[in-house]
Amino acid sequence: MTPLQPLAVLAAEQKSADVTDWPNRIGWIVGLLLFIALVYWLMRQGWKWRGTLQGDLPPLPDAPTEQGPVKLELSGRYHGSTSAGQWLDRIVAHGLGTRSRVELTLTDAGLTAVRPGANDFFVPAEALREARLDKGIAGKVLTEGGLLIVTWAHGDKLIDSGFRSDHAAEQAEWVTTLNDMINTTEGTAR
Questions:
Q1: Do 104 and 49 share a structural domain?
Q2: Whole-model pTM above 0.70?
Q3: Which domain holds residue 183?
Q4: Which of 74, 84, 118, 142 has its CB surrounded by the most CB atoms within 10 Å?
Q5: Do residues 84 and 46 both lie within one domain?
Q6: Do 75 and 45 belong to one domain?
Q7: What is the DSSP string of 53-113?
């Protein structure tokens, strides 16, 4: 027997380990996919529940057919609506919680938000309360002054709606024009 022979015997006797334990791996993947589906389902149920809780919010008004001359137009993103002053209390009733592209139009009649793929809405001029630049609204935080926040009354609730223009420089003009319009509307109401 040569000295190499015991090594050959040892090598022949050893069995290499399985590289992949497929049943175990497939079990983990299926379990992970089921967990993700469960989390998604729970989030969807929470969204629907929030909409149910906000069911007392009256339907949104329809835009009048004759709105008058256009004062300002803005193209950008709608980031959602919250209870006024509570930037994390998202309102989802009537589609107000759905983020989307938006075409904003300001006229003497009010503010019209046309949203492709989501519910459009109209805010009458007499319902407008304030406009300001802010840094965040439910789930969206930007640099200071990055969002145009419009506060408006709907039923007995004050709502903050957040918009971001494709051209951020025009947002300051919107704040000035909206606040002037609000002050004028309040002055004529007295």
A1: no
A2: yes
A3: 70-189
A4: 74
A5: no
A6: no
A7: HTTTSPPPPPPPS---SEEEEEEEEEEEEEETT-TT-EE-GGGTT--EEEEEEEESSEEEE
Residues of the chain with pLDDT under 50: 190
Q: Please check whether residue 127 is in contact with residue 110, taking contact to mean a CB–CB distance below 8 angstroms.
A: yes
**Residue 27 sits in the same domain as residue 97:** no
| Alpha-carbon dihedral angle through residues 39, 41, 43, 49, given to the nearest 10 degrees | -150
Domain count for the chain, please give it: 2
Cα–Cα distances in Å, from 184 out to 123, 139, 187? 16, 33, 5
Task: Answer yes or no: do 38 and 78 share one domain.
Answer: no
Q: What separation in angstroms does the CA of 24 have from each of 16, 31, 141, 175?
A: 18, 11, 42, 59
The dihedral formed by the CA atoms of 111, 113, 114 and 118, expressed in degrees to the nearest 10? -150
Integer-rounded Cα Rg, in Å, for the chain is: 29
Q: Which two tokens stand for residue 59?
A: 């339907």
Tally Cβ neighbours within 10 Å of residue 145: 14
Helix or strand or coil: residue 120? coil
Q: What is the pLDDT of residue 190?
A: 46
